[in-house]
Design goal:
The chain contains 8 helices and 9 strands. The chain has a 9-stranded mixed beta sheet, with helices on both faces. Helix 1 packs across helix 3. With 235 residues, it is α/β, with parallel strands linked by helices. Helices cover 37% and strands 18% of the residues.
Amino acid sequence: MKYKRILLKLSGESLMGGQQYGLSPQVLSSYAGQIGQAVKEGVQMGIVIGGGNIFRGLSGVGKGFDRVRGDQMGMLATVINSLALQSALENEGVRCRVLTSIRMEPIGEYYSKARAVELMEQGYVVIVGGGTSNPYFSTDTASALRGIELQTEVMLKGTRVDGIYTADPEKDPTATRFETITFEEIYSRGLKVMDLTAFTLCRENGLPVVVFDMDTPGNLMRVLKGEKTGTTVKF
């Protein structure tokens, strides 16, 4: 394995599958199978999940919600997704714990770096719900923060797209995919991969990012083995 300890970021939207809202049991089962396979190979894994399949804070602003309140609702949505993935992982026989950045025992233990590392070293998958616990920060930023805190070797951003393209491949058929790209080039091209706060955290703390298609079974293991899958963001 190329990587021994990783931070896996999953998008909430991906958990919908073909639905318009909520959780797809098929997607959860597929993700749990891939994660379980990685854990069996000895990979230590922290996971952060978005909440866009249930509620997105920014969209709430347009519906009359105060931004802070909307972001707090989005944080709770990430906890729901974390519990759903925990259930799917346990169905696969994978030991898993949900830690939350906001106190809400007994739903999950309160997050601390020491506790998360202790669990990962014991072979548990650690899912951190609740974002950073602060408004105005995305779950991409939460992923970067947790990846740095937990001293992971890489942040893997699992999406529905197989990497970073010159343009949106769903809108521009001429878009081409990068195998590698630098943080500076993403800035200069204005590519919307993650928000700038998340990218800046990664760049300033030396955390590389791999963007790949999590919806294709087997891709997670390909990335972990160092095979050419997705796009690697370098310094």
